[in-house]
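Entry 14. Structure prediction run on the chain below.
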Amino acid sequence: MNANTKTIMNISVLTFLLFSASSQCFPEMTIEQVSKERAKELGMEVRTKANGPNDIWVELEFKAEGKFKDFSHVSLEIREGKQLLVGYAALREKRSSSGSVVVNFMANRAFLDKITLTVVVADVPLGGSGYEVRVKDFTESEKSR
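Output returned:
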């Protein structure tokens, strides 16, 4: 092999390696927007409890079975339109002896329409499913006061 052939081969190998490294496969998650009716079908329950005149406790409970058997975590996001203001990867969960998963948090009522909880299920090797619960769809401000 002459020097030019070696150089071309080395450049070709380097180009291939750089191209391969830059085209990584990222996990893909399918997202389902969960309505009140769908939540009942899935066995999800959202409860609220007033905490003074402005704040409210929000609690999400579901069983880690069926669609949620490969449950990973519940994330919380606060968005203004499409802009992410706050993202919290995993709310602390409590598990009951009956197999239920419960997460909760407190928020100001004025921001409930910006908060989304996502139940993340790692049901496939390179991704999973996300069940989005828009908190405003599950709260009734008058009832929660």
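Residues 16-23 have pLDDT under 50 and may be disordered.
Filed with the rest of this week's runs.
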